[in-house]
TrEMBL record:
Residues 22-34 have a biased composition (Acidic residues). This is Heat shock HSP 90-alpha 1. The keyword Transport does not apply. GO terms for molecular function: ATP binding; ATP hydrolysis activity; ATP-dependent protein folding chaperone; unfolded protein binding. Keywords: ATP-binding, Chaperone, Nucleotide-binding, Stress response. Residues 1-45, 363-394 are annotated as: Disordered. InterPro entries: HSP90_C, Hsp90_fam, Ribosomal_Su5_D2-typ_SF. Belongs to the heat shock protein 90 family. It comes from the Eukaryota. It holds the Pfam family HSP90. Residues 1-18 have a biased composition (Basic residues).
């Protein structure tokens, strides 16, 4: 019995201890929870942005540095980034040229010959052109000969202009220039809609695109617009410009300009004529036939046309009247974008009109001497017989 009582007492003590320990543990847990809650209240959320940057232009302009300061490894890395080649180059050349045109060049010779070395391809070379370290064009054909197209590199110049050349600027047209052209004057006055074609590709598109949304497209630079015609004005102009134009018509487009040149329905426009004349393998017979189909449109309400009609009625065979009629025609050719076949004749005609305006006699000896070519007597050359023999052998 005593043993049983002792065991029960021990069990009770253990239970009490367990209960006390449990209570103490709960208290400690509550304190830790309070501390955690306090810590949570004190925390602040901070937003951080991470940006992954990738350098796209890894090619540095090492050609602007001193060649003595550039290592072989830098040349190799630049060549691989420039040409996407996995192998090192065989040789490199870094040089600069000074003169009328200053430029720097960095050229590489690959270690292996390209697999398409002897193939006829559109890509003529691998030279890139830079102006003031600004990339201009890839595969510039004028920089190196075609048989050296395996050479790779860059050419940088600070003397070349970044804008369009004057020649290209004069031949190209903007929308504002076309909008103020003589072809659309009367159309704009009557409120008609005009589509401006200012891109070279438009010439090829319009040849196939005849209609749009049920409406026929008519070129204002060609004949096809029907308006009342003044037969008397046309006949007088046709008599003088008999061989220069196919026919003379009264314009339905002109308001402030005296005349303009248009092409026939199947003739070439001024832009197309320039394109065809620039072709190396052109057919001269076809070019001359199609290019000759030009029509002169006149504005009968213009003071110049009215005065020319009065002078033609007075004396049709007067030389000054013929010059006055041909000058507006040649001026219209230039303003319409065509080229003169004989610029010297046009210049002489302008000089005669200047003399007429200044009251200078046409038979002035000083002006005639200036216009005549200088012919000097050349002394006989020695050895004429030998030269003639050589010509016979040739």
């Amino acid at each position: 019995m005593k043993l049983k009582k002792r065991r029960r007492k021990r069990k009770r003590k253990k239970r009490r201890k367990l209960k006390i320990e449990d209570v103490e543990d709960v208290g400690s847990d509550e304190e830790e929870d309070d501390k955690k809650d306090g810590d949570k209240k004190k925390k602040k959320k901070i937003k951080e942005k991470y940006i992954d940057e990738e350098e796209l232009n890894k090619t540095k302009p090492i050609w602007t540095r001193n060649p003595d300061d550039i290592t072989t490894e830098e040349y190799g890395e630049f060549n691989k980034s420039l040409t996407n080649d996995w192998e090192d180059h065989l040789a490199s050349k870094n040089f600069s040229v000074e003169g009328q045109l200053e430029f720097r060049a960095l050229l590489f010779v690959p270690r292996r010959a390209p697999f398409d070395l002897f193939e006829n391809r559109k890509k003529k070379n691998n030279i890139k052109l830079y102006v003031c370290r600004v990339f201009i064009m890839d595969n510039c054909e004028e920089l190196i000969h075609e048989y050296l197209h395996f050479i790779r590199g860059v050419v940088d110049s600070e003397d070349l202009l970044l804008n369009i050349s004057r020649e290209m600027l004069q031949q190209s047209e903007t929308k504002e220039q076309v909008a103020h052209s003589a072809f659309v004057e009367r159309l704009r006055k009557h409120g008609l809609k005009v589509i401006y074609m200012i891109e070279p590709i438009d010439e090829y598109c319009v040849q196939q695109l005849k209609e749009f949304e049920g409406k026929t497209l008519v070129s204002v630079t060609k004949d096809g617009l029907e308006l009342p015609e003044d037969e008397e004005e046309k006949k007088k102009q046709e008599d003088i410009l008999e061989k220069k134009v196919e026919k003379v018509v009264v314009s339905n487009k002109l308001v402030t300009s005296p005349c303009c040149i248009v092409t026939s329905m199947y003739g070439w426009t001024a832009n197309m004529e320039r394109i065809m004349k620039a072709q190396a393998l052109r057919d001269n017979l076809t070019t001359g036939y199609v290019a000759a189909k030009k029509h002169l449109e006149i504005n009968p309400d213009h003071s110049i046309i009215e005065t020319l009609r009065q002078k033609a009625d007075a004396d049709k065979n007067d030389k000054s009247v013929k010059d006055l009629v041909i000058l507006p025609y040649e001026t219209a050719l230039l303003s319409s974008g065509f080229c003169l076949k004989d610029p010297q004749t046009h210049s002489n005609r302008i000089y005669r009109m200047i003399k007429l305006g200044l009251g200078i006699d046409e038979d002035d000896s000083t002006t005639e001497e200036l216009n005549q070519p200088v012919t000097e007597e050349m002394p006989p050359l020695e050895g004429d017989e030998d030269s003639s023999r050589i010509e016979e052998v040739d």
